[in-house]
């Protein structure tokens, strides 16, 4: 016979799960001193009986924003996403914990870190540095939203941007301006669907317009502490090995900033001698000289959307986490001009 909701209490959950009341309390309060096996068993009973803890054991929802760092700096891309998170969570009945997770051999696992910070759900940005650990979160059934990542699962979703179509917009604009010799500065392609799609869009646009690409036009990523340094180094390499290029498409705005400096140091005026276009639409781009033409992705909207979907999921307002892609916008400024 089905039990009435009022008959379902923490003692019943403990009995059905074969654990102590204290163990159920630790699971409900997301304590770390519970094995994943026991946690999963108790969670299954809680879900089966639709158990809602009483006020004596209930606590506020805590959503962790995991900033995965494989370098020493938080860049402007991350801060725009955090602005979106803050905009949604400010003043709400919701706790947000920013978890700076540095990827290094001596680091604790991401799952252990999340448990220690008592996160009920997590947003991960960027997901690439912790790609090898996302399966652990999926297996532990921690509600997770990836920003610009593609892995999914029963309690894992993502929200991202239209990288491919956005890069096509950039390339078609350059080609419409008369550019046929266009360089491409790669960011890291490791575990990054976003960056890979931008490179593929670059290649497809050349082919679609009957332009025979030159391997020297594509410069592989040079890892650096600051992304702008990579743009500077890679653009210098491009100008050395493919001096005839008339435009440079950079995987992101920070690389474009470095590329512009490399062009000036090489005696090339931007955009009179060479055009530069970026991707992301970071706010400082309009203040560069020249103001940067770019493809804007909705970074604040990505941050707000990710935390909103987790909030709704934890409140039972949605049963699955979405797989959502938001559009991009070509922002035309001063760093691109027509070929003379």
Automatic annotation (TrEMBL):
Keyword Ligase tagged: no
PROSITE patterns: HTH_LACI_2
HTH lacI-type domain location: 8-62
Keyword DNA-binding assigned: yes
SMART domains reported in the protein's UniProt record: HTH_LACI
Molecular function GO terms recorded: DNA-binding transcription factor activity; transcription cis-regulatory region binding
Name assigned to this protein: LacI family transcriptional regulator
Organism name: Victivallis vadensis
């Amino acid at each position: 016979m089905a039990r009435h909701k009022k008959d379902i209490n923490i003692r019943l959950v403990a009995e059905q799960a074969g654990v102590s009341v204290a163990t159920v309390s630790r699971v409900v309060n997301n304590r770390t001193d519970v094995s994943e096996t026991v946690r999963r068993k108790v969670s299954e009973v809680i879900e089966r009986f639709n158990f809602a803890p009483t006020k004596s054991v209930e606590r506020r929802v805590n959503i962790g924003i995991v900033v995965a760092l494989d370098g020493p700096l938080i860049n402007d891309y991350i801060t725009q996403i955090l602005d979106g998170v803050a905009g949604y969570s400010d003043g709400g009945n919701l706790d947000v914990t920013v978890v700076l997770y540095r990827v290094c051999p001596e680091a604790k696992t991401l799952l252990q870190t999340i448990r220690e910070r008592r996160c009920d759900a997590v947003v991960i940005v960027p997901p690439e540095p912790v790609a090898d650990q996302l399966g652990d979160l999926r297996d532990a059934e921690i509600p997770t939203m990836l920003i610009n990542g593609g892995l999914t699962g029963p309690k894992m979703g993502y929200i991202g941007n239209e990288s491919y179509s956005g890069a096509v917009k950039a390339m078609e604009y350059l080609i419409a301006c008369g550019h046929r010799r266009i360089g491409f500065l790669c960011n890291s392609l490791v575990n990054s669907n976003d960056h890979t799609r931008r490179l593929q869009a670059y290649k497809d646009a050349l082919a679609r317009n009957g332009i025979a690409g030159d391997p020297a036009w594509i410069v592989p990523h040079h890892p650096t502490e600051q992304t702008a340094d990579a743009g500077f180094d890679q653009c210098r390499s491009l100008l050395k090995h493919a001096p005839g290029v008339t435009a440079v498409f950079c995987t992101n705005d920070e690389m474009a900033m470095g590329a512009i400096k490399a062009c000036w140091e090489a005696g090339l005026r931007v955009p009179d001698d060479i055009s530069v276009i970026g991707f992301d639409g970071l706010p400082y781009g309009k203040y560069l000289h020249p103001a940067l033409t770019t493809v804007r992705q909705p970074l604040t909207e990505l941050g707000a959307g990710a935390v909103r979907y987790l909030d709704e999921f934890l409140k039972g307002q949605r049963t699955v986490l979405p797989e959502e892609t938001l559009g991009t916008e070509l922002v035309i400024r001063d760093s691109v001009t027509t070929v003379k």
